[in-house]
Amino acid sequence: MAVGFWFVLLVGLVGLVLGLILNHFLPLFFKLGHVPKGTFGWPLLGETLCFLKPHPSNSLGAFLQDRCSRFGKVFKSHLFFSPTVVSCDQELNYFILQNEDKLFQCSYPKPIHGILGKISMLVAVGDTHKRLRNVALSLVTTTKTKPEFLNEVERAAIRVLDSWKDKPQVIFCEEARKFTFNVIVKQVLGLTPDDPQTAKILQDFLTFMRGLISFPLYIPGTPYARAVQARIRISSTVKAIIEERRRDAENSSKRDDFLEILLCVDTLSEDEKVSFVLDSLLGGYETTSLLMALAVHFLGKSPTALEQLKLEHQKIRSMKQKDDYLNWDDYKRMDFTKNVIHEALRCGNVVKFVHRKALKDIKFRDYLIPSGWKVLPVFSAVHLDPSLHASALQFHPWRWEGRDQTCKKFTPFGGGSRCCPGSELAKIQVAFFLHHLVQNFRWNTKDGDQPFAYPYVEFQRGLTLNLDHCST
Question: Which of 60, 367, 369, 403 could connect to 64 by a Cys-Cys bridge, CB 3.0–4.6 Å?
Fold first, then answer.
């Protein structure tokens, strides 16, 4: 019996390995028409490790540079255990984004689903994604001009900057995350920084974030396993807050936050509402704080841009009383600020690429994309393409003056039906923070402290700022 068991186990393991190897090489033996040129790399892993090798986020990295020079802007590879077409081509990227759920479908690696949950807006497809997105767009539309939201953003920015008064140096990424978390947890759940539930959610959320970018091995004690458990705890906390809101609904006035509106949305299930809250926290916390850090980093390297930005905000402040809050009209006047934000997005590339899957055989130009293959449109390659953007590697906010910032060659928040619904809220937060930052501080950064893509973007040293206080 024992010999038979081990024999069956050995045969099973050999079969699994052979199956994986065949899955890797089999596509190479079929006549697939004009599949883009390229290589598949090692068995099983393919070229994934080379693709994920860290590099400055305002560069293509060695992998893309090498493949584009050898095979062109569209090439085949084997990434994340699947044959893949990688696109650094503006037109193909736009074609992919505009044909979501028609020819292509969101298809992130399964471990991502394990952390985010199957009904996260980031990984959901079809009707589930449409329902979640429609709610998100409705919330953003009604929120972005509200004085209550705008005032809270400004108060949060002032609190952070007031804490710098006696500090010669700060780790900016930590400060930016503190700011964005306080804003989003207030806007979504109505919690203040001093609320005990805020600290609990933040602790679990940090564990969640570390696991999101870790090796997907579900063994107790690993960052991935801890992240999955952290998500369960956050979900339980959110559910408890929802139940408390419902119990107190008759005895208290309505609150002005996302959760209050979500409770009245009949098109979402209870689990979808909880998942929506987690998606909002993720988008409002990590990506917004990273955009802030990128803007501050590039401004620190461009004194001319920083001076023009300061003049714009001094002019806006001069039109108001000393303690007046910023409003929507003030935001609309921040033209150069928006140029700075867009240029930071173009140079820094918060989102480098997205995962898609071909739903059928697709012909584009002379290329064939086989059904079932993964497709990776690489946004950063288009943003840094010198044939599309003059002096593409240079931070130059003036390039956006008089130009359409929603075009095929600039997709920092994705595109089509998966364009980030909260992008405007993120830009408002960055703009309001910069309004107070540039009027009260000058700063410089340490050499070598630059944004790196892992492929997620991160500052290796947290972006240390040496501060100088200045009068307005």
Answer: 60
